[in-house]
Design brief:
Length: 106
C-alpha cells in the first residue's frame, strides 16, 4: 500500500468512526425566529431589542453577518418572531442590525 492509499484508508476509517459517534450525541436545536412585520405580531409578547454586529474586517455584505448575529441572539433569548428596525453602517464594510424580538407562542 503506498502512502496516498494508506492516507485515504486512515482518513476514511477516522471519518466512519467520527460519524458513528454522532448518533450518540443529543443535538439541541432551537427554532430560529421568523422575520415578520410589526402589523403581524399584535398578539405577541415583546421581549427586548437585540443588536447584531458584523464583526471587524472588510465585509462587503456586512448586513448578512449582522443579521445572522442578531438572529442568533434572538434565538437564544427564546424569541419566536423578529421585526427589523434598522441596519446601521459603521464605515463602509461593517455595521449593526437592530431588531425587536417577540414571543408569539404563549
Amino acid at each position: 500500500m503506498n502512502r496516498l492509499n494508506a492516507f485515504k484508508f486512515v482518513s476514511l476509517n477516522n471519518l466512519k468512526i467520527g460519524l458513528s459517534f454522532l448518533c450518540c450525541i443529543p443535538l439541541i436545536s432551537m427554532a430560529q425566529p421568523q422575520e415578520t412585520e410589526l402589523s403581524k405580531i399584535q398578539t405577541c409578547h415583546y421581549l427586548q431589542t437585540v443588536e447584531g454586529g458584523s464583526g471587524y474586517g472588510k465585509n462587503v455584505n456586512w448586513q448578512v453577518l449582522a443579521k445572522y448575529s442578531a438572529l442568533s441572539k434572538a434565538e437564544k433569548l427564546g424569541a419566536s418572531h423578529l421585526v427589523w428596525e434598522r441596519f446601521d453602517p459603521i464605515g463602509t464594510f461593517n455595521g449593526v442590525a437592530v431588531a425587536k424580538i417577540y414571543d408569539c407562542n404563549s
